[in-house]
Amino acid sequence: MNNLTELEVENLRHLIGGHGLVVQKLEAYAHNCTDPELKTILERDAQAAKQAQQQLMTFLG
């Protein structure tokens, strides 16, 4: 399934990098958060972004 064009690969890399940035930010926000409910939400969203990033990476392999 690696019949991607150069543009598609570049777009995938951009999306993957964007998800990585979202993960870093959400984890930092969660680390600094004092509200336990909000901290849980941020951690859950960070995990979802990681999973999406990993899923996108499967298209490159």
3D architecture notes:
The model has no long low-confidence stretch (mean pLDDT 95). The protein has 2 helices and no strands. It is 80% helix and 0% strand. α1 packs antiparallel against α2. It has 61 residues and is an all-alpha fold. It starts with 5 loop residues before the first helix and ends with a helix. The protein has one domain. The protein has helices at residues 6-32, 36-57.
Count of individual helical segments: 2
Largest sheet: none
Low-confidence stretches: none
Number of domains: 1
Give the SSE order as H and E letters.
Answer: HH
Helix content: over 70%
Query: Termini distance?
Result: 9 Å
**Overall mean confidence score, pLDDT:** 95
Strand content: under 5%
Counting helices, strands and paired strands, the structural category is mainly alpha
Protein name: Spore coat protein
Organism: Ornithinibacillus xuwenensis
Keywords:
mainly alpha; Spore coat protein
Task: Give a brief outline of the structure.
By secondary structure, the protein is mostly helical. It is built from two helices and no strands.
Topology of this structure?
Layout: H1 6-32, H2 36-57
Helix pairs in contact: 1-2
